[in-house]
Amino acid sequence: MGTTFGDLLRAHRRRVRLTQEELAGGSGVSVRAISDMERGRARGPQRRTVEALAGVLALARHEVEELLDAAKEGRARRAPEPPVAQSALPPDVADLTGRDDELAALDAAGSARRATSLVVLHGPPGAGKTTLAVRAAYRLAGRFPDGCFFFNLRGMDARPVHPSEVVHRMLVALGVDEKQVPAGEAERSDLYRALLRERSTLLVLDNASDEGQVRPLLATGAGSLVLVTSRLVLGGLEAGLRLGLDVLDADDSLELLGAIAGRARVGAEPVAAARVAALCGHLPLALRIAGNRLASRPKWTIAHLAEQLGDERRRLTALTAGDLQVRTAFEMSYRQLGGKAAVLFRRLSLVPGADFGADLAAALADVDRFSAEDTLEELVDVSLLDTAEVPGRYVFHDLVRVFAGERLVDEDPAPVVERARQRVVDLLLDTAVAAAGFFGPDADGSPVGDLRGQEDADAWLTAETANWTGALRWAARDGRHGDVLRLATAMHWYSDQRGRGETWVEVFTAGVAAARALGSVRDEAVQLNFLTWTLGVLLRRHDEALALHDEAWRAAVASGDVVEQGWAMHYRAVSEMRSGRLEAARGDARRAQVLFRGAGYALGEQIALSCLGLVLHGLERYGDAVVVHRELLGVVRSGRLGLAPAMTAEMTAQLLVRTAHSLAPLDRWPEVLAAADEALAALRGTTAPSTLCDAHHLRGVALHRLGDAAGARVELVRAAGLADEQRRHDLADVLDALADVLDDLGDPVAAGGFRDRAAHVRSADR
């Protein structure tokens, strides 16, 4: 036959005007396989593959027969491949997805001509280590003239394969007559090494249990490659390349789901498909099972499967297709754990947040921190736990967490579980309260436990936000109203410049509920005031804040607490100012000042006066605003308010920024620059991101107006990096200022880009 199978296939496909992707989507044959056929790399596909392609191409019977004959001829003409390589490797999986980078790295390792290259491929259960190793072996086999050998070491079985068994089988595969295989293990190993010394081979050792199972098989050869897969990192082996497999990204997850369940089907329900992928934790095994379940149930919608997976109690059961089970994959690793590691693994499912450190693990296991760290590393080594982006923190895969929770329910007595949970709740609440205490006006900066100062406290509260807020929810459900109120009260000053508004809505709403449950009208007023401030200042939901003010005012009056009445009036003034009701805000700021003065609360009086300064700025009475800001600055610097050093520094910087802000419309740029410089100096050693952003912004604008465009760009870039999602309006102003600077620096294209970004930010903020 003069025409090859690939020639015929390409001609038929082009005749009906299908792309390779469209032919793949209709036939179920991968795009890669179709490409290989048309290029002649795969000359003799099997009959079922040919018939699947022919069905989509709508071929006549004689055309189908011609295509089948060409495929048969291709199989007959194909050069014989090394029998060991083809008989040893498991079947390749056609729909391997999202591993291009890893395959490229393995290709490079297979091209190296060292004596023997060792590659370790490790990762969690279900990540697709074997699938990737098999694909790589098929691609690399032709580079090793003396054969490709594959052995499943069954490292997770109760009885893993002994290295001597592999040596025996290798000797036979290398041509040693069964009767000539030495009886002694040492003699067999000697012969094994001697035979491989002059050979170039590819040896795939799948599912290794530990280093000891692998080392006896690492015989050197002339340009050989040993590829080991394991759930363990196998850090004791001197590997030339170590590849850790992670889960797939969102796009690759949908690609794999579509390759199995049908791309058209996935494309018809993109939102539900994305939810299924997320509930599978983007784990290849789970995605494969989900795809198989959909493929075997064509009447199901993807939304129906997503609903099944959405119930955490049923998720692992739903991820079962025939003999494929996610739960079984996890159980194999779990059975390898020692007693202490198994206990900690189960209890880690109680951690409320996504990641955690050794202190929470220690509380759960009721051991010291060092023992907890050792056990956490053991769990990482067996791929039941992963390290987080932040050093010293750990993270579960979502499905592994679900599995750990199942084991906890089945194996740990309920009273033991409850005591472990309460230890974690106590630790998180106590540490959160202590950390927040570093930001109050009376904070003296003295170390508390492991927290050496404000910087440590800020870092802990940021890293553990999901965990201490989770503990707050647990405490609220358990009726621990006093603990909830204690934490919510402690967070007041910390929330002033840190954290997300949504977090503080949750915290202070819980505080209001706790105060009401305890029957404390005064605490109810305190928490309502905090919540009013969050809604009005952080989230700019001014109408809601003003409505809530009425509740806060009534509670403050009912309690007879004049200080809380002052706060209620102050927060009302802030909400009015932020919503543009400046005359009303000016009157209420004065009323708040009078209330604070009557209560003898000097700090509150100065804060109310500070609000008045902002109102005067809004009324374009910039000179009067500057006078107020500087008056306040003198009071704060005098020490008469009795503030802690850190609080003094932050308030000083904030007032300097406000002074600079009011000086700017008066074009008093040297004074603006001086005030911004002073603010930045005051902020050294503190963590006040909002004020820091404002100081760099104003310094940048001042430098620009004073003729230093290059210096202005540096400051404004810093400000843009500090303006987070909670301050989108500030970010837009910074971007506009940066665009003006870039115009002067002769870069109008970049300037336009920043203006577009500023417009987008403002649009998203509406």
Automatic annotation (TrEMBL):
<dbReference type="InterPro" id="IPR003593">
    <property type="entry name" value="AAA+_ATPase"/>
</dbReference>
<dbReference type="Pfam" id="PF13560">
    <property type="entry name" value="HTH_31"/>
</dbReference>
<dbReference type="Pfam" id="PF13191">
    <property type="entry name" value="AAA_16"/>
</dbReference>
<dbReference type="InterPro" id="IPR001387">
    <property type="entry name" value="Cro/C1-type_HTH"/>
</dbReference>
<feature type="domain" description="HTH cro/C1-type">
    <location>
        <begin position="9"/>
        <end position="67"/>
    </location>
</feature>
<dbReference type="InterPro" id="IPR011990">
    <property type="entry name" value="TPR-like_helical_dom_sf"/>
</dbReference>
<dbReference type="InterPro" id="IPR041664">
    <property type="entry name" value="AAA_16"/>
</dbReference>
<dbReference type="InterPro" id="IPR027417">
    <property type="entry name" value="P-loop_NTPase"/>
</dbReference>
<protein>
    <submittedName>
        <fullName>XRE family transcriptional regulator</fullName>
    </submittedName>
</protein>
<feature type="region of interest" description="Disordered">
    <location>
        <begin position="73"/>
        <end position="93"/>
    </location>
</feature>
<dbReference type="InterPro" id="IPR010982">
    <property type="entry name" value="Lambda_DNA-bd_dom_sf"/>
</dbReference>
